[in-house]
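B., you asked whether I could sanity-check this one before it goes into the benchmark set. Here's the sequence:
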Amino acid sequence: MSLPSKEKPTLLLVDDDSIIADSLEFVLSEEYQVNRASDRLSSFELLNKMEHSPTLALIDLGLPPDTHKPDEGLAVIRKISQMHPSTRVLVLSGQDNKKHVFQAQEDGAVDFISKPCDIAEIKVRLKKQIKAVGGETGDGDIVGLIGSSEPIELLRMQIRQLAGSPYSVLIEGDSGSGKEVAARNLHLCSPRKQQPFLTLNCAAFNGELLESQLFGHTKGAFTGATETRKGFFEEVGSGSLLLDEVADLPMDLQAKLLRVLEDGEFYRLGETQPRHSAARVLAATNKDILAAIDNGQFREDLYHRLSVLTLKLPSLHERGDDKLILLDYYKQHVGEQIATFQLDEEALSFWNEYTFPGNVRELRNIIIRLSAKYPGQTIKTNTLKMEMSGLRRPGATVSNDDWLKNALHKDNFQLDQMLKSVEKEMIDLALSEHDGNVTKAADMLGINRTTLYGRIDRLEDKG
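And here's what the prediction gave me:
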């Protein structure tokens, strides 16, 4: 938010009715610095001249040259959303049919006030948006994004900037970088924060089951549908729905998701009566969607709908000393349950140089593993290298030969125990890479899903 300090909040008022505009300016100028325009072109000129983003905008849809259609007002809303995404846009219009309300919200409006409306009501609605900007989106609402590096500070700023928009957000980032955490913060910093936040992993279900999870189904709609159930779009109401691993959404469901994004319409499986969603859709992926489009695996029109706004999460290796901050943070949390460990000076330096290809998730898992295996101990570099599973990948800092030699010379070395340890870590790593999706983890490990389940059970039984 780029408000000049010690000044009134700025309000852009766009209305061609001079009587209404004069009245609003007279009443609102006590609390707001009012800037007026009467049509699309004059509002664009005013926006270009403004040094700071207006705090609020109050826009009439019916503007010249054709005051009987919403096109001019909608164009103003889109312009504000593009130039000043932090501005809260409210519509004040007599064109209040359902289609126009929905389109205004799609284009960036956060509230719709029907004409005629009492001035007191307008003031209340404006103050509500001021509260959302200044009182409910501060530092305290950003949770789970630990660190002080420039990339993470930029991410916090972008989350606050995009949170209030009704547009979809495409969240991109490597596996383990915190995409769901970013999505949750987009919800917590938005006017929807009191509404539900739900997450659906698009890679965890197939076919009818995934469609049912999204849109719901009626009793008997498919084999096993023993009762009518709501889908995520209904359950979330006007809250935020995160579609994780959206690049794995089947092509037939991509078309149905596109319909929801375009006009809010969807159908339960087994029903012919359309339903409407007011949810804000957030989508996350660690895949190259543009490559998927080129390969015919993802719809280009859906991509453009999902990526109206984008959020790119930094990898941990881009975040400098955040690795040390995260080390202390997770040690403190793990330490509430068990005695944790210390790193000697050389090991601490190695920790800070390590790239963490699995990002924050890998860092957290390493801390949990070290705490469980070496409670209360000071860990040296060789031990730390052995426990960092990422170092056993091709291209890692330590060669496979070095790691094997270090393991072989360790006191009380037992081959069977080492093989079990490697097997467990590889399974954990594969599951982590695919956010717990057993089918994909099995493919990565070169075994079938049933075999993987069996190995997991066997390793758990033997501790």
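One thing to flag: Residues 1-6, 134-140, 390-401 have pLDDT under 50 and may be disordered. Otherwise nothing jumped out at me.
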